[in-house]
Amino acid sequence: MTQRVAIVTGAARGIGAAVALRLAKDGNAVAVLDLDEGACEATVKTITEAGGKAVAIGADVSKSDQVAAAVERVVAELGAPTILVNNAGVLRDNLLFKMSEDDWDTVMSVHLKGSFLMSKAVQSHMVEAKYGRLVFLSSTSALGNRGQANYASAKAGLQGLAKTLAFELGKFGVTSNAIAPGFIETDMTAATAARVGIDFEEFKKATAASIPVQRTGTPEDIAAAASFFCSEENGFVSGQVLYVAGGPRN
Ligand code: NAP
């Protein structure tokens, strides 16, 4: 089987790191991209020590010049990328009346603009290869969530982007899908617990009680879904949103 080159954004930790490890285990060379290149080294080391191929790339996905330079480095160091997982994300939660313009712009820039810029930068390689796998990290918050007007809008927008690129790029052998996780145990949900002043273990326990499978999710739960969407054999599921949430939606 051909070794594909994958880029995973926000892959220094959390869901992105688990997706990077899984895609490497699946046989792909992986560009571990995050804001801080040094912070990517742990993910790269785990991959290379297991016999895989990976490089650390530092870039802010919301800056077009940094995105262009990052993709050029991936081409030079690993080869042309044909798998992209748009995972980088930030939270700036607040009720609407307290949400600042900066809270809105930051979330839109990283999630929506970042995914647009990254997808645009890799699409020419996918089109040339007549092969591609695009994955967007949406969220159950896309259905609406108190205190997340910015995040919910960005995550709903990513579903629209995934579906649109499925239409535009399908004829070039590219599939484009979104994963909408529910509560996943990462620094992001730990920060939410801290913000509302609840111990993380208590927060997870309380959340698990409302989830049909009675547990919170792990980054590996999301990596398993990403692995399917990014696989060679998935050439016919495109433009879909997969809720990975221990139940229908949360
Ligand atoms: P996380 O632990 O906070 O990790 C996010 C990563 O993205 C961090 O390494 C962060 O870098 C990086 N990042 C932030 N802004 C960036 C930028 N402009 N350019 C490049 N990298 C950037 O988050 P997570 O929980 O793993 O979530 C990953 C994705 O899944 C996000 O899109 C999130 O919205 C989505 N999601 C998460 C959950 C959940 O329950 N955890 C649920 C639904 C959806 P720094 O550390 O340097 O900031």
Automatic annotation (TrEMBL):
PROSITE patterns (alphabetical): ADH_SHORT
Keyword ATP-binding: no
SMART domains: PKS_KR (SM00822)
Gene Ontology molecular-function annotations: oxidoreductase activity, acting on the CH-OH group of donors, NAD or NADP as acceptor
The keyword Manganese appears for this protein: no
Keywords, comma-separated and alphabetical: NADP, Oxidoreductase
Position of the signal peptide: none
Protein's GO biological process: fatty acid elongation
Domain Ketoreductase: 4-182
InterPro entries: KR_dom (IPR057326), NAD(P)-bd_dom_sf (IPR036291), Sc_DH/Rdtase_CS (IPR020904), SDR_fam (IPR002347)
Family: Belongs to the short-chain dehydrogenases/reductases (SDR) family.
Name of the protein in question: SDR family oxidoreductase
